[in-house]
From TrEMBL:
Top-level taxon of origin: Bacteria
Protein name per Swiss-Prot or TrEMBL: GNAT family N-acetyltransferase
Length: 242
């Protein structure tokens, strides 16, 4: 059987093409293929940030997202070892994230079971434009983080998440770690927790791919159902006409 790397045929930056995701049988293990779902996913494009102007836009986007929360710090800005990415919708920047190799003595190596001595890449700077919150973006980011981690040869992709929003990541399928609360994001009143994906084996990345499509299918279908219900309440039924 071909590996997920071969199955998805990633582009040079490690992000699979829309066509590859739409034709990979791995994607449809947990939910049936639906063109309306795939059409929604195709509206979002992920690419690596390489130009100076794009980096400035990235920094501005990050500051705008974090400063209202009171957790913006200069140390959160990407360093030379980081790879930065943006997700666009109709040409407009809708979200950002970055990946950085974790140091061998990182908190991730300490608390993730079996991670000592393994290669871990950290995802942070996950920021989503307010009007897109609750949309498909978090799933798109998490899927691509897992695929990029695997393509780059890392065993885990992990992040440090505020307790209040941890359920959003776990709902997608990341693995939470129970450990003493951390306070590393700039506020002693905020409890931070580690969550991660295993990405060293084909089966692990297959899970992330199938889980992501299931997430997209659920989000799109529930939105369609909500629209149907809203429309039905505006249109009287035959029974009501009688």
């Amino acid at each position: 059987m071909r590996s997920v790397r071969e199955e998805l045929r990633p582009e040079d930056d490690g992000i699979p093409t829309d066509h590859a995701m739409a034709t990979s049988p791995v994607a449809f293990v947990a939910a049936p293929k639906d063109e309306s779902v795939l059409a929604e996913v195709r509206k979002y494009q992920t690419c690596m940030i390489t130009e100076t102007q794009e980096r400035e836009e990235y920094r501005d986007f990050l500051e705008k997202a974090l400063r209202p929360l009171g957790i913006y710090r200069e140390k959160f800005l990407p360093g030379v070892a980081s790879s930065c990415y943006k997700v666009t919708f109709d040409g407009r920047m809708a979200a950002i994230f970055r990946l950085t190799p974790a140091a061998p003595d990182s908190i991730y190596h300490e608390v993730i079971p079996g991670a000592a001595g393994r290669r871990i890449i950290e995802v942070n700077n996950v920021a989503i434009e307010h009007s897109f919150k609750g949309d498909l973006l978090l799933g798109i980011i998490m899927r691509n983080c897992a695929l990029l981690s695997h393509a780059k040869g890392f065993d885990y992709v992990a992040g440090l998440i505020r307790h209040e929003i941890l359920p959003m990541f776990v709902d997608f399928g990341t693995i939470p770690v129970r450990h003493a609360p951390l306070h590393l994001l700039g506020d002693e009143a905020i409890c931070d927790y580690v969550t991660y994906f295993m990405t060293d084996r084909k089966e692990h990345v297959d899970y992330a791919v199938s889980r992501s499509y299931h997430y997209f299918h659920r989000k799109v279908t529930m939105k369609q159902i909500a629209a149907d219900v809203a429309e039905s309440t505006l249109c009287p039924t035959d029974a009501l006409r009688g």
